[in-house]
Amino acid sequence: MKNLKKSCIYLLLTIGAFIMVFPFIWMILSSLKTAAEVNSIPPTFFPSSPTMENYTYALEKAPFLIYFRNSVIVTIACVICTQFTTILAAFAFSRLKFPGRDLMFSLLLSMMMIPFEMLIITNYQTIVGWNLVDNLAALIIPFTSSVFYTYILRNFFLSIPDSLYYSARVDGASNWKYLWRVMVPMAKPALVTIGLLNAITCWNSFLWTVLVTNKTENRTLPFGLYAFMTSSGIRYERLMAAATIVVIPMIILFICFRKEIVTGVSRGGLKG
């Protein structure tokens, strides 16, 4: 009975994993097909004669090198800024004692229920007021802090024994020194997780990029997919090739650091 239960669990997990991975497999296989194969009914799963022409066309159609450069700049800047603000906020809410600390953190957590799309108008008005429209800074500023990442790191900081903090204070270490010399090195798994999740989010950001950028020189990779949507129709095989170019770097990043992501989230979500 126990083995049957375990087999059912593994079967359900396998089915769930296949459902999650199948769209990516279909995207890559479709990018290697011809227009006739993509639009054939019934659809074919594997391309009869794989071709790389779609990738060649995608690289020529849209300036992916410019988009790639901008995506790298925006992602690195967002990750660095978010790491810094998250570390400071998590330390304040986990170690510093001030009136209303728990209430303030609860209010911040409640903001996680507000989707980003509802904040677009306010963020856009701020960017316009600062004269940052059509500037890479407009793609960075709204993503320099996160309540979710602060929540993960705060719980990780709370799992660090208080005795270390009091010992450091007795030895004359300031809060600032204790944070960067003791807590940050110990929280490396959580920080790696936060950095990777934030990088994936920034890399895939599309809606905000469309709103605040007008010139090709300031747009990122996800916007490059727009070049394959025209009034005359969509060439899906070319669109899939472009989507693969955009997604592959993040897939590789996730595969390389998947253990760190799982470890950081699981340890950051628990106290003690």
Polypeptide structure, described:
It is a single chain. The protein has 272 residues and is mostly helical. Helices cover 68% and strands 1% of the residues. The protein contains 13 helices and 2 strands, in the order ααααααααααααββα. Strands 1-2 form a two-stranded antiparallel sheet. Helix 1 runs antiparallel to helix 13 (236-268), helix 3 (53-61) crosses helix 13 and helix 4 packs across helix 8. The protein is globular. The model is unreliable at 268-272 (pLDDT under 50).
Q: In which order are the strands of the major sheet placed?
A: 1-2
Query: Any idea what the radius of gyration is?
Result: 23 Å
- SS-based class: mainly alpha
Spell the H/E element sequence.
HHHHHHHHHHHHEEH
The shape is: globular
The total of beta strands comes to 2
Oligomer: single chain
Proportion of strand residues: under 5%
